[in-house]
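Forum > Structural Biology > Help requests

Title: Can anyone predict the 3D structure of L,D-transpeptidase family protein?

Hi all, first post here. I have the sequence for L,D-transpeptidase family protein but no way to get a structure on my laptop. I'd be grateful if someone could post the structure tokens.
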Amino acid sequence: MPRKASGATPSAGQVVRVVADRAGAATAVLTTWERTGAGWIRAHGPIPAYVGKNGVGQASESTSRTPAGVWPLTEAFGTEPARTRLPYRTVTTSDWWVSDVRSPYYNTHYSCAPGTCPFDEAAGENLGEAGPVYAHAVVIDYNRTPVVPGAGSAFFLHVTNGQPTAGCVAIPGADLAAILRWLDPARHPVIEISG
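Reply #1:
Sure, ran it for you. Structure tokens for L,D-transpeptidase family protein below:
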């Protein structure tokens, strides 16, 4: 694993590395790495991935760009059960990711029946209605501590539909299922995204 990645993640024992094909590209290559006594070894990949249709860089609520940087991976969700050591939530149509910049719940998960939510549902993402792309997903902890309204929300590593995303990282379902089984919160996993 390149020195840059290991230097950027001194406490991480697992790294999901996403490198866009070129500046502004919506395609990337994903590999996973784990720290051993002998150094870093590759655990998965290379896996073809899609990123935001505007590429990788500074994310915001008004762009379809995947945030560049190193972010913790602390939880996961999906419409299907998963084998993973990460905290995992099986979602329904009452599960949302809030993208309403005026809401105190911005860039968090919230459970409420459609039509009853305390935020603008049109500015939120109903996780249970997203279809097969959210069969499994890992939350990318970008803009979560602290949360900055408008800096971007709802960034996930999820199942691909074969197209660029609105800012998430998307890979084939079988590869994501294998990565979910591999991720271990005790090893402080992170995702490193670069373009």
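The radius of gyration is 16 Å. Residues 12-194 form one domain.
Shout if anything looks off.
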